[in-house]
Amino acid sequence: MLTKRIIPCLDIKNGRTVKGVNFVDLRDAGDPVELAAMYAKNGADELVFLDISATEEKRKTLAELVMHVAEKVNIPFTVGGGISSVEDVEILLNSGADKVSINSSAVKNPQLINTLASKFGSQCVVVAIDAKQINGEWFVHLVGGKVPTEIKLFDWAKEVEQRGAGEILFTSMNHDGTKNGFANKALAKLSKMVNIPIIASGGAGTMQHFTDAFIEGKADAALAASVFHFNEIDIIDLKKELKNKNIPVRL
Question: Which of 121, 206, 223, 251 gets the highest tally of CB atoms within 10 A of its CB?
């Protein structure tokens, strides 16, 4: 059985790590390179860096930051935010990133997924999907959750898999930053529908929430930010707890 992954997420704005609730009210959480090095040492399986201002401000994710991170960490890391071309991906992979995450650009130009998968391999392409449940239906949102669409989460997930995405990073906007647990019903439905790994994001508050995401939500990985940034959950302790519950993790 494949081990379940624990992934700290670093939202980057103006070169600093920030964290908000339901995608707003951002507060500073520290230097991303220092945090990355600490997480790599403390048992994180992977890292995700999302430049949350990149798409909105139409500037490119900081290749320089990627280089600094690559010098300090020995675990895979994914970079996202404002990536919309083969050239953007080349720069980031050459700077040391292992994977890229695309979101708004994939919705606006779905063919980008096919292009990136065929050029760099599916294993490099993570499609991030920010979705909000409205009257019982999940809808995809763009530009850091600011722009609603009429695209349905499950239809889009199926399409991105068919186009060659290697993984889906699903963030529930309803749960993000609330610390009330992940969107396990939606996660379980996604996991059943597609054959690529699903990373759960949005809602981690306790160790039990991670257990639930893996058992009820059938997620392949669980991503969190503030519980790690503000030392509310220690990754090694979390992994020991998961192991005690017979969830396969790398210790």
Answer: 223
